[in-house]
Automatic annotation (TrEMBL):
InterPro entries: RNase_H-like, RNase_H-like_dom_plant, RNaseH-like_sf, RNaseH_domain, RNaseH_sf. CDD domains: RNase_H_like (cd06222). It comes from Solanum verrucosum. This is RNase H type-1 domain-containing protein. Residues 106-209 form the RNase H type-1 domain. GO terms for molecular function: nucleic acid binding; RNA-DNA hybrid ribonuclease activity.
Amino acid sequence: MEGMLLQQLIIAWWKQKASPKLQEVYRAIPTIILWTIWKRRNVIKHGSNIRYEEMVNQVVGVVRQLIKAKYPWIERIEWSWPDISSRMGIYKPKLHYLSVIWKPPVIMRIKCNTDGANRGNSGLSSFGYCLRDSRGDLLFAKSRGIGIATNMEPECLAILNALITCKERKLQDVLIETDSLSLKKTIQWKWKVPWELVERIRKSETSCF
C-alpha cells in the first residue's frame, strides 16, 4: 500500500474482502486513525507531544471498544490486530431459538390473532388481525395503518377492531390471542393503564358483550 494516496488507501480498506463482522471493523479503522492523528495534531499545537506507539495503542483501544459494543458476546480475545483479524474472521455466533406453534381452537370456537407494528416509539404504526376456525381456515382478516403512534396503541386498536368485527358478525365464542404481554396485563387491569389507552380498553371491554 506504499505510495498510495489517502483516498485510494481508504477505498482499499473499504473493499477489503472479509467476513461481514470483520468488514465493519475494517471500514471504521480509517476514521479511527484520522481521528487519532487529529488529536495528535491538537496535542502538538498546545505544546505537548505524543509518540507513535501511543497513537497505535489509542487506535487499538478504540477498535477494542467498537468490538465490545457491537459484539459483546465475543470473549477471550487477545487485543493484538492479528488476533482481532483472525477471531473476527472465523467467529460464528451460537444460535438460540424458541419454537412458536399456532394451536387451533377447539371445535365451535373462533381464534383471533392480533398484532401491532411500529417504526420506533412513537413512529409510523399499523395493526392487523385475523379470525380462524378449529380447522385453521381463515374466516376474516384486516390490516390498517394508523400513522404516528406509541408501541401499545396499534396493539390495542388491533384487539378493539377485532372485537368490533366479531360483534358485527355475531361471533360469540372467540378467543383473542396477542403477543403483547404488557397489553394483556393492562386489559386485565393487573398493570397500570396508560391514560391515552383508557377509553380504548374500556371500549374493548364493552365490545365483548
